[in-house]
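queue> pop job 88
queue> type: inverse folding (structure -> sequence)
queue> payload:
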């Protein structure tokens, strides 16, 4: 199958259209950069303040938006609660309050806000994210009855509207989990889930472009299942699939066989090829991601050396986590003609999908087919309390992360012996939340060679748990080369230590 048959050319998209589309994205990027510079300027607050005299409602929106960007990790619930009180008929203020409350773990206030949206008939399909966030909290409490009641209550409020089937699609994974059907005789679990989801897509009133992309993601999953040794795409639904991964890892440890598990998320597209229609944006996107991670783009020579190492580590891994169809359902604007081309995250997801469709060409020759799983497996295992089973009897382990206190936490929580604890400099996501800092101010790419030297022979015949972001993929590969069973666990370390670095759609309140 040619590249063109996979993408826009099959729909008659011309080169001129591609160029216009790329210019549109570049203009959006420039506008976004200008807005951020304006927010940081000394004039932003006076402008927001002066709006109070002309339009108090819009002033609330502007001030809240500015605060959310400037103080990303702050708790903005009280601000939005005040705005909601001033304008009780404005559902956008209520939505902002729910979002802020879930980000800060203030679950009771989020519940009150969602109940208000439902009772005032203002709930929409976009509010499914609040249901998901609250369900994550219910899951931690083990309250299955409450989960079912919450889903029924929300969907019932949308009955008879265009949003009903769209909301059902967005909540499909929760519906499959908490309202299970007996599978058809002889039906494979993953194929059954995919069949039901495709049926929901067909019945929903979503727009053409998101529907096409969801069907493409489903086709990719089916293709990987036909070529891989094992696929575990439903770990968010299936405890059995999480335990299958645990058994796989424990088997490698028991046999003394080196093994690597790497997750490929949207940010990891920094070293991956883009589809032809978006390829002109790949380098600029990579630089944007580097600025997000480390505050500045890498020097071109550093990027040229690092990117191939990380790409090879990802596609040569024994087990590869990729975004599943559930991730695309979450990210897409289903009631708009959204193809995930206008955002950094969306283009990253498209890039990973494009590469997964042709993974054989990116994987070194002679390697056996890998195991594929969800790139959110590490979070699914945390929600299902699978790490105790993974670490029980694992022997001594090696930790690689930016958390000085992680070794003590793991030893206390799981009773696991720590053979090595390599502490890295944090990126700009975890850094502001760390309670203890390390003295070295260099970014991780600047000291990767030293980290490899510190690793030495520690990984041999040991479980190596790595949380090092984008460069961590290569560290996993190095740990495997040195005889370890290395797992890329990323943000789970933040979660264990109570740091809210991820969305409530991933992990729920900390």
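queue> result:
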């Amino acid at each position: 199958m040619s590249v063109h048959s996979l993408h826009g050319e099959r729909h008659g998209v011309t080169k001129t259209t591609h160029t216009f589309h790329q210019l549109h994205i570049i203009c959006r990027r420039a506008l976004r950069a200008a807005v951020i510079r304006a927010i940081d300027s000394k004039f932003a607050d006076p402008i927001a303040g002066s709006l109070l005299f002309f339009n108090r409602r819009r002033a609330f929106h502007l001030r809240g938006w500015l605060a959310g960007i400037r103080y990303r990790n702050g708790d903005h619930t009280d601000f939005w609660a005040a705005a909601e009180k001033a304008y009780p008929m404005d559902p956008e203020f209520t939505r902002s309050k729910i979002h802020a409350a879930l980000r800060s773990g203030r679950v009771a206030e989020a519940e009150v806000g969602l109940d208000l949206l439902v009772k005032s008939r203002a709930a929409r399909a976009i509010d499914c994210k609040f249901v998901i966030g609250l369900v994550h909290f219910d899951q931690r409490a083990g309250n299955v009855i409450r989960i079912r009641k919450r889903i029924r209550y929300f969907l019932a409020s949308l009955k008879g509207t265009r949003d009903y089937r769209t909301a059902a699609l967005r909540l499909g994974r929760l519906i499959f989990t908490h309202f299970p059907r007996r599978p058809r005789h002889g039906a494979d679990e993953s194929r059954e889930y995919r069949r039901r989801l495709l049926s929901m897509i067909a019945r929903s009133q979503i727009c053409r472009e998101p529907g096409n992309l969801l069907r493409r993601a489903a086709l990719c999953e089916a293709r990987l299942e036909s070529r891989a040794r094992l696929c575990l795409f439903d770990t968010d639904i299936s405890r059995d699939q999480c335990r299958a991964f645990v058994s796989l890892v424990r088997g490698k440890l028991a046999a003394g066989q080196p093994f690597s598990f790497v997750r490929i998320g949207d940010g990891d597209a920094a070293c991956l090829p883009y589809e032809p229609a978006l390829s002109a944006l790949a380098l600029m996107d990579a630089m944007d991601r580097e600025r997000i991670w480390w505050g500045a783009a890498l020097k071109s020579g550093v990027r040229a050396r690092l990117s191939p190492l990380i790409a090879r580590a990802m596609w040569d891994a024994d087990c590869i986590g990729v975004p599943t169809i559930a991730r695309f359902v979450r990210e897409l604007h289903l009631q708009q003609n959204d193809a995930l081309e206008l955002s950094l995250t969306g283009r990253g997801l498209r890039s990973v999908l494009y590469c997964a469709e042709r993974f054989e060409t990116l994987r070194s020759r002679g390697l056996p087919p890998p195991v594929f799983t969800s790139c959110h497996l590490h979070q699914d295992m945390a929600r299902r309390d699978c790490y105790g089973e993974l670490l029980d009897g694992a022997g001594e382990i090696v930790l690689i992360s930016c958390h000085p206190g992680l070794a003590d936490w793991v030893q206390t929580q799981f009773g696991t012996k720590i053979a090595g604890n390599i502490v890295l400099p944090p990126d700009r996501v975890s850094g502001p939340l760390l309670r203890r800092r390390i003295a070295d101010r260099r970014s991780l790419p600047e000291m990767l060679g030293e980290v490899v030297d510190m690793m030495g022979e520690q990984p041999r015949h040991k479980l190596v748990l790595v949380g090092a972001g984008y460069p961590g993929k290569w560290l996993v590969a190095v740990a495997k080369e040195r005889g370890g069973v290395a797992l890329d666990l990323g943000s789970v370390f933040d979660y264990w230590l109570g740091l809210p670095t991820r969305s409530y759609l991933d992990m729920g309140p900390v």
